[in-house]
Amino acid sequence: MQGLRDNFLMAMPHLEDENFAGSLTYICDHDDNGTLGLKLNQPMELTLEALFEQLEIDASDCPSLETPVLNGGPVHRERGFILHAGSPEHWDSSIRTGENRALTTSMDILHAIAAGRGPEQFLICLGCVGWEPDQLAQEIKDNTWLTVEASDEVLFRTPAPARLETAASHLGVDLSLLSREAGHG
């Protein structure tokens, strides 16, 4: 099951795990070593302005101070993960996640965003999600997740609470009408 990178995982309605129920996850990396993703539809009470204050970063030139920080997942909750449009080459610790998307974990991008010089399209998450090798493939076979190709519309132009439904609509699916049973014959 290679090829899940740069896709969304939509939690099926019957998924009751408190960490993933009703979640939309973006797959940043997926290979033989496992899978790394970020939940994208659970805003925290924390705004970008408050985050910059906590980190003592001058953000007087940042146009996005009211942007909510997202709960990216239950793993590494103390770490920041910035998913953004553009190339990873501009930042110290960055990987390509899609054709024109990257994931950066270094402070240089936060300083650039605070100064108004960072990427125009970005999401800041605290924490991430991860799966061991073959674990996610089995969960998909068990009808826990539905997948769809990621889009900038959902990532950067849809408010966080509406991202799951918007991603599902790209498949022509209404998640509230889906069954917990997989179509095995």
TrEMBL record:
InterPro entries linked: AlgH-like (IPR003774)
What is an example of a Pfam family matching this protein?
Answer: DUF179
Record the organism.
Answer: Kushneria indalinina DSM 14324
Cellular-component GO terms for this entry: cytosol
State the HAMAP family in the record.
UPF0301 (MF_00758)
Superkingdom in the source lineage: Bacteria
> What is this protein's name?
UPF0301 protein C8D72_3085
PANTHER family reported in the protein's UniProt record: UNCHARACTERIZED PROTEIN YQGE, UPF0301 PROTEIN YQGE
